[in-house]
From TrEMBL:
The lineage of its organism: Bacteria, Bacillati, Actinomycetota, Actinomycetes, Geodermatophilales. This is Radical SAM protein. It holds the Pfam family SPL. It comes from the Bacteria. It comes from Klenkia terrae. PANTHER family: SPORE PHOTOPRODUCT LYASE, SPORE PHOTOPRODUCT LYASE-RELATED.
């Protein structure tokens, strides 16, 4: 008999700031009520819409204080114009920006600027109502063939981990319910990825199979060393099994893949643990993302986590240039070929029936 992993302790921020406009909106008020009920010691409704300067003096204490702060704001007007987000989905929209966890490779380090507070958007229902205009306008260039039947895909976890804050916001449940019950002009799918396991509040929602919940997982030693304040991987895998049982399409985001010592054994055990919880009817996709860093993300991460043992050595990597000349440091070709060959084969053998969406 297997024992269910203990649930992860839910995040209680030490400070919550709610702007005046956010407090006037129903979703903003819902978050306010939830953080008060959760016993957050310092909840402030601001007199205006500007957040105070949270940059501090750039020291570690300021970083930790920002990481432990939740702000409830109204999104800037530019947020209403969605951006394409290949290969993950056709379009991205944001429930929030920022995350309270402490992954030492965090991909937000290179993309979000300013102090690392978590901002929740109180105008979420308006954003959801505006998505109709994007249906049928998919622009994904990678993975399209594998999931074309799923319609236009919307990614909600580009800049946050929605499940890390769901107990305080209810935003993911609102989005799932909207996708499941709205009369859409064409087929759609909501996509979200998480390193957390608190799925209880999602199980009974009227999702109608229109939300794919993906769990970001990794080799045990990578998660143990580098993924602070997230749910343990076995708990994420158990959560994947629960939402698959509840009829959700599910996914594995295996990321960031690292060729640690004994990586074949560790990643093999990971895939086997997923196979063990999947119901036979599960609709499972797999996305594989190898570790990479940019000059900007390396600078930010070494500032945030100065004692990190994460390998970010340019000498051990190959440099790739993106569309606009942006530099990325990825594993050399021979390492990539070996990893890719192993994962393609291992997923096929250990998770037959899973759809492999992309490798990067
Ligand atoms: Fe960053 Fe995701 Fe880790 Fe949060 S869970 S710190 S968003 S990598």
């Amino acid at each position: 008999m297997t024992t269910a992993p203990a649930p992860t302790r839910l995040w209680t921020p030490s400070r919550v700031l709610v702007t005046r406009s956010a407090a006037a909106l129903p979703h903003g008020r819902q978050v306010l009520e939830r953080v008060q009920a959760a016993g957050v010691p310092d909840v402030q409704v601001l007199a205006g819409d500007r957040l105070p300067n949270l940059r501090g003096d750039g020291d570690r204490a300021a970083f930790m204080a920002a990481k432990d702060t939740l702000a409830v704001v109204v999104g800037a007007p530019s947020k209403r114009r969605l951006q394409p987000i290949p290969p993950s989905a056709d379009w991205r929209f944001d429930l929030a920006e920022g995350c309270p966890a402490h992954c030492q490779y965090c991909y937000l380090a290179g993309s979000l600027t300013g102090p690392p507070i978590t901002r929740v958007f109180a105008d979420l229902p308006d954003v959801l109502a505006s998505l109709d205009g994007y249906v049928g306008r998919g622009e994904v260039t990678s993975g399209t063939a594998e999931r074309g039947h799923e319609g236009t895909t919307f990614e909600a976890s580009c800049y946050t981990d929605p499940l890390a804050i769901e107990h305080l916001t209810g935003g993911l449940a609102t989005a799932i319910t909207h996708f499941g019950t709205h009369d859409w002009p064409g087929p759609v799918q909501l996509r979200a990825t998480t390193k957390f396991d608190d799925v209880e509040s999602l199980l009974e929602l009227p999702h109608r199979g229109r939300t794919r919940l993906r769990f970001s997982v990794n080799a045990a030693s990578v998660a143990r060393r580098f993924e602070g304040a997230t749910s343990p991987v076995p708990a994420r895998v158990a959560a994947l099994g629960r939402v698959a049982e509840a009829g959700y399409p599910v996914g594995l985001t295996i990321a960031p893949i690292m060729p640690v010592e004994d990586w074949r054994t560790e990643y093999g055990e990971l895939l086997d643990s997923v196979a063990a919880v999947l119901p036979h009817h599960a609709d499972l996709t797999v996305e594989c993302i190898t570790h990479r860093f940019t000059p900007n993300s390396k600078a930010t991460l070494t500032d945030w986590y100065p004692r990190t043992k994460l390998e970010m050595d340019e000498e051990l990597r190959t440099t790739k240039r993106g569309k606009f000349g942006a530099v990325k440091h990825v594993y050399p070709k021979d390492v990539m070929t070996e990893l890719r060959g192993w994962f393609t084969d291992a997923v096929e053998r250990r998770l037959p029936g899973a759809r492999f969406l992309y490798w990067t």
